[in-house]
Amino acid sequence: TAAVVELLLQAYHGRLILLPCLPPDWPQGYVRGLRAPGDLTVDMEWADGELVSARLATGSRFDECTPLTVCTGSYERHILLKKQRDYLLVPMAGVLELMPARRRETAAVV
Questions:
Q1: Residue 94: left if φ>0, alpha if ψ -120 to 50, beta else—which one?
Q2: What are phi and psi of 93, to 5 degrees?
Q3: Which of 10, 52, 57, 82 pairs with 38 at a CA distance of 20 to 30 A?
């Protein structure tokens, strides 16, 4: 499964690369809950082999002082994120737009 994750997400040296090696047999799809270093969770959806949207969810151990560069296809965005927040990344009009997203609730087991 690690090799499959590497096709969809790569993270190193402050860079988060979304869909770096998407196989041509997967022109559309989505993935939920990919974990990136630094307490970051990524959900993504793609169509025609390109990113449609990505949700970045930071956890309580996320380092707010570390800048992050998010890349996908020809898009690149330098961002600073706050801990315990959700963000939505959407490619629009030649830029990778970043907007706050509603925090996902986690299910509690009783």
A1: left
A2: 50, 45
A3: 52
